[in-house]
Amino acid sequence: MLDFKTRLAFLHKIIEHDQKDHDRFPGFDPEYDFHDEDEEALEDNPHKDPKMITIRRDYLLEDGYDKITKRKDMRSVFMIRFVNEHGMYEEGIDGGGLLKEFITLVGKTIFDPNYGLFLEKEDKTLVPNPNSHFHPDHIKLFTFLGRLTGKAIYESILLESVFSVIFLNRILGVRNTINELKYADPEFYKNLMMLKHKKDIASSFGLTFSVDDTTFDNQKVIPLKPNGENIEVNEQNKLEYISLFCDYKLNRQIDAQSKAFVSGLKTVINTSWIKMFNHEEL
């Protein structure tokens, strides 16, 4: 295994080589390049991405979602132009700094646990909220976020938010096990480890092959296997229970969100590029 710095340098080389195949430093066309997706000037260029994206600061997420979702080639160069609260274009030419500001500001909004898409764990890392479905268009927003994250990686823009090991594993295509439960729920991890290693105590836990899923004031029982709510956990089946419980909590609950994020990520980068790193390095 090559050391981290060597692999990071290799990633940069891969991206640098890939950028040569995309619309990175095109000639300037004043009749086209200062228009964005919403303007009539694009009617004659339906298959061409604009070089300029206009973002209203008062509608940062709405405009960002609309413009980024419409782009056909996220690897091509585009500039950000902000419109202030008075409806005026802000001065300044985007040499990369405004794109970084845009991605950072969107991240602060969409990664905020109060927004509903992510939960913050005890170690201050972020994991998709299993109940994000209460947010309108949550799957589309995870895809959008994957595209933005991919763009940040492609342009060497550092994201301020830190993803949980649990989410990073799902991005890398790795299924989480009991080893990752300690990051999600340290107390339950201790209980499961006790159940796993101590003999003749399984029946005292009063468990069945099910989990209680409480969302706001609604509570329902989720079977971990067919008829699981009626199957008691005992010494003979406790390892199966632990495996199914961890799979549900760490993989199945955030499966749709993770897949949407990765689908957006893949529109910008090849996921094999980041699979040379482990979750700690990412």
Could you characterize what this model shows?
The chain has 282 residues and is an alpha+beta fold. 38% of the residues lie in helices and 10% in strands. It has nine helices and six strands, in the order αβαβαββααααββαα. The strands form three sheets. The chain has a two-stranded parallel sheet. Strands 3-4 form a two-stranded antiparallel sheet. The protein has a two-stranded antiparallel sheet with strand order 5-6. The chain is elongated. The two termini are 16 Å apart.
Q: How would you describe this structure in keywords?
A:
282 residues; alpha+beta; two-stranded parallel sheet; two-stranded antiparallel ribbon; 38% helix; elongated
Classification by helices and strands: alpha+beta
Calculate the mean pLDDT score and round it: 86
- What shape does the CA trace take? elongated
Radius of gyration from CA coordinates: 23 Å
User: Biggest sheet, in brief?
Assistant: 2 strands, parallel
